[in-house]
């Protein structure tokens, strides 16, 4: 009987240890991966304060790396500040750094020198270069805004380039949309198919309805 009780106690303790090991940790402190308090395969729910480079699975809360990169192999919910922020999964919140990259869906604010979202984007991109590959619903504000998919919203920049269907407003020196539903205002406006209005020095409408090229203003409804 005593051995059975001892065995059961050991099993219970082992299960408790496994559950605790799988729980996300509240505090992360690191210098450079793998010199970090919480191993990279574990998740953080709380605060991550780091010097050069930190890696974890999922992160919820606040991450700050003083001289380097915040890296998450999974999803992030919260705020990331660092010279670089690299997320393989989805992101909900605010990502701020010189280079920001999210591999999945992004919802919130992405601000920095270069902002890259490989999934769908909802919110505001603010930077010198804003790059999205999925569906965009929101605002891109930067020197160069590039969207590989469809967009609904506003593009403001020196160059606005959309390879899908754009619904909304493009304002810049050069505006391009494969299919434009809305208003283009710029020095040069170019679209393969226009359902809306173009105002600029040169305006090209590929569907030629009613006119293919016009100076100052072009339209198609």
What does this structure look like?
There is one protein chain. With 221 residues, the chain is mainly beta. It has one helix at residues 2-22, and strands at 25-32, 35-36, 44-56, 59-65, 69-72, 76-81, 84-87, 91-102, 106-117, 121-132, 136-147, 151-156, 159-191, 194-205, 213-220. It is 10% helix and 68% strand. The longest helix has 21 residues, at 2-22. Mean pLDDT is 92; it is low at 1-21.
What is the mean predicted local confidence, pLDDT? 92
The outline comes out as elongated
Structural class by sheet pairing and helices: mainly beta
Low-confidence stretches: 1-21
Beta-strand residue percentage: over 45%
What fraction, in percent, of the residue positions are helical?
under 10%
The Cα radius of gyration reads 24 Å
Instruction: State the separation between the terminal residues, measured CA to CA.
Output: 87 Å
Biggest β-sheet description: 15 strands, mixed
Number of strands: 15
Q: How large is the count of helical segments?
A: 1
List the secondary-structure elements in sequence, H or E: HEEEEEEEEEEEEEEE
């Amino acid at each position: 009987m005593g051995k059975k009780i001892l065995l059961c106690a050991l099993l219970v303790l082992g299960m408790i240890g496994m559950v605790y090991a799988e729980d996300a940790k509240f505090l992360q402190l690191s210098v450079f991966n793998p010199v970090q308090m919480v191993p990279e395969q574990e998740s953080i729910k709380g605060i991550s304060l780091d010097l050069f480079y930190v890696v974890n699975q999922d992160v919820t809360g606040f991450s700050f790396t003083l001289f380097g990169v915040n890296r998450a192999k999974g999803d992030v919910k919260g705020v990331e500040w660092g010279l670089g922020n690299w997320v393989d999964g989805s992101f909900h919140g605010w990502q701020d750094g010189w280079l920001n990259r999210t591999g999945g869906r992004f919802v919130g604010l992405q601000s920095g020198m270069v902002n890259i979202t490989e999934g769908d984007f909802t919110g505001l991109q603010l930077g010198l270069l804003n790059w999205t590959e999925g569906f965009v619903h929101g605002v891109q504000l930067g020197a160069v805004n590039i969207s590989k998919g469809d967009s609904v919203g506003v593009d403001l920049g020196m160059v606005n380039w959309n390879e899908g269907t754009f619904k909304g407003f493009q304002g810049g020196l050069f505006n391009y949309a494969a299919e434009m539903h809305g208003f283009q205002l710029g020095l040069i406006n170019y679209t393969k198919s226009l359902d809306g209005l173009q105002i600029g020095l040169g305006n090209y409408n590929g569907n030629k309805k009613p006119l293919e090229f016009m100076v100052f203003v072009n339209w198609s409804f």
